[in-house]
Design a protein that fits this description.
single chain, mainly alpha, two-stranded antiparallel sheet, about 5% strand
Length: about 110
């Protein structure tokens, strides 16, 4: 829900912001719960990988769209893009892979 700027006090539903909230929520709650058991660690690993791939695609698309519409100069490109967020998401995937390998080998 996003506040409507024209009509104060009313809210509108924004699908892009909903998905941006839903994926981290699923990652934090459901994937963590799936990694708590050896039986469901495979599903946690799979879901974590899917969320990271979709998140990378969505964030890269958002970043490219914002950069092209606002014509951001090259030196500010790194700070204005979602590249740091994508790196954090892949770091989360690597932590999930380490947990998966620990469950399967240990």
């Amino acid at each position: 829900m996003v506040a409507d700027k024209l009509n104060l006090g009313s809210f509108i539903f924004d699908r892009s912001k909903f998905m941006a909230t839903l994926f981290p929520l699923i990652d934090a709650v459901l994937v963590t719960a799936l990694f708590m058991s050896r039986k469901t660690a495979v599903y946690g690993y799979l879901l974590n990988g899917l969320i990271v791939i979709y998140g990378t695609i969505f964030m890269a698309h958002f970043s490219i769209a914002e950069i092209t519409t606002k014509s951001i100069p090259f030196p500010a490109l790194l700070l204005k893009s979602t590249l740091p967020d994508i790196v954090i998401a892949w770091g989360d995937f690597l932590v999930g892979k380490a947990l998966y390998d620990l469950y399967m080998k240990g």
